[in-house]
């Protein structure tokens, strides 16, 4: 029995590092998705990529530079800076930074972020291809069938159209 466990563990260590994407819109459900990925999915050799999609109407200098391709990958050290958030029109959120710091420090995973502009459904699917993601984790607001038809569901669209496995995490209110 010990041999099997050790062998399975060694096989994971020898496997290539995965690219794990997490869709982030600063909602409680996207934070729940990030916490779930950090706790249950990301390993030491992995790269966690925080994917933020800003609305098309956002008018920031960086959008003019990177509007078509999305921003360059930004390392956690730079993403942590308030100035970075201002340049991209992002919400500075200490809770998210704590989760990312923990993944980097405790698990040894590499953490980066990328910003896109446009429809979150399309841009998350584009990110899967662009970043060659092995898997994507997104949150779900838990819309009922009627609201999903009227408003559309980002998570439903991504599950249906992404070319990698997608995990949808529903925020559980305690």
Question: What does this protein look like?
Answer:
InterPro entries: Rossmann-like_a/b/a_fold, Universal_stress_UspA, UspA. Pfam families: Usp (PF00582). It comes from Erythroxylum novogranatense. The protein is of the alpha/beta class and 174 residues long. It is built from nine helices and six strands, in the order H-E-H-E-H-E-H-H-H-E-H-E-H-H-E. The N terminus is likely disordered.
Based on the model shown, name its key terms.
48% helix, 20% strand, six-stranded mixed β-sheet, disordered N terminus, single chain, alpha/beta, UspA, 174 residues
Topology readout:
Blueprint: H1 2-14, E1 19-24, H2 28-40, E2 47-54, H3 61-66, E3 74-75, H4 76-79, H5 82-88, H6 94-107, E4 110-117, H7 120-130, E5 135-140, H8 145-151, H9 154-161, E6 166-170
Parallel strand pairs: 1-2, 1-5, 2-4, 5-6
Antiparallel strand pairs: 3-4
Helix pairs in contact: 2-6, 7-9
Shape: globular
The helix-and-strand class reads alpha/beta
Helix-strand pattern: HEHEHEHHHEHEHHE
Rg, alpha carbons: 17 Å
Spans of at least 5 consecutive residues whose pLDDT stays below 50 are 1-13, 146-151
Beta-sheet strand percentage?
15-25%
* Distance, first to last CA: 39 Å
Helix content: 40-55%
- Give the tally of β-strands: 6
What's the average pLDDT? 82
Question: Count of DSSP helices?
Answer: 9
Which strand order spans the largest sheet, edge to edge or round the barrel?
Answer: 3-4-2-1-5-6
Main pleated-sheet profile: 6 strands, mixed
């Amino acid at each position: 029995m010990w041999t099997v466990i050790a062998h399975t563990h060694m096989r994971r260590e020898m496997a290539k590092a995965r690219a794990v994407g997490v869709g982030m819109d600063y909602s409680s459900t996207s934070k729940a998705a990030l916490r779930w990925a950090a706790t249950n999915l990301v390993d030491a050799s992995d790269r966690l990529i925080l994917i933020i999609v800003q609305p098309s109407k956002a008018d920031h200098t960086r959008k003019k530079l990177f509007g078509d391709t999305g921003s360059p990958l930004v390392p956690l050290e730079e993403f942590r800076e308030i100035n970075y958030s201002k340049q991209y029109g992002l919400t500075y959120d200490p809770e998210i930074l704590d989760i990312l710091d923990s993944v980097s420090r405790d698990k040894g995973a590499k953490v980066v972020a990328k910003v896109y502009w446009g429809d979150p459904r399309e841009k998350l699917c584009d990110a899967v291809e662009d970043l060659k993601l092995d898997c994507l984790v997104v949150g779900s607001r838990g819309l009922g069938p009627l609201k999903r038809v009227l408003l559309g569901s980002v998570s439903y669209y991504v599950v249906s159209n992404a070319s990698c496995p997608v995990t949808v995490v529903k925020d559980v209110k305690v």
